[in-house]
Amino acid sequence: MTHTLADPRVETALSRMFALAEQDEATAARLGGLAPESTSHQELADIAAGIYMPISADGGKLLYNLVRAIRPATVVEFGMSFGISTLHLAAAVRDNGTGRVITTEMSKEKIAAARRTFAETGLDDVITVLEGDAQQTLADVEGPLELVLLDGWKDLCLPVLRRLEPRLRPGALVVADDVDQGEGMLGPYLEYVRDPANGYQNVTFPIEDGMEISCRL
What is the value of pTM for the model shown? Predict the structure, then answer.
């Protein structure tokens, strides 16, 4: 039995983007030394328009499997970048035969590139891209929400989660990427979801820089 991740159009797009992402470190070095405290998130997004900042290949497969398993009607992604993780989410939605992916991104350049990729892979019909600050663009997304991927600016993960929280159904999964790499900025987020009083059960999944998977109780 075949699946959408094995579609030659999707395989080609992912291989191309993963290869380009290997240049991220060199690209970031050329951009140099602006820190979040010195610029706005929108300015940082514009500066980083050429940086892929992808999930790992195994992380993408994990997301695919999670979406296939829980069959969410709505998947929300905070931080699309060039759309590597979005393709994995959308492929699973396609193979489930139901659902949609709502993703967010600040960079106009990345949005234009991602939309071309989504059209080339035939997955554009299950993906909605919201441009701008996710704290605003996700405000009107209707629930219930059943899977959320937090992979944008790390200091915004907790504010975005808190905004979405009233629309999470019991059993919803919230996945945060790079928990080992970005634990400094993710500290408030991790402290929140790991506090039993806030209604989550958590596991840190050891893929690349770590994924925190939180189940809404």
Answer: 0.89
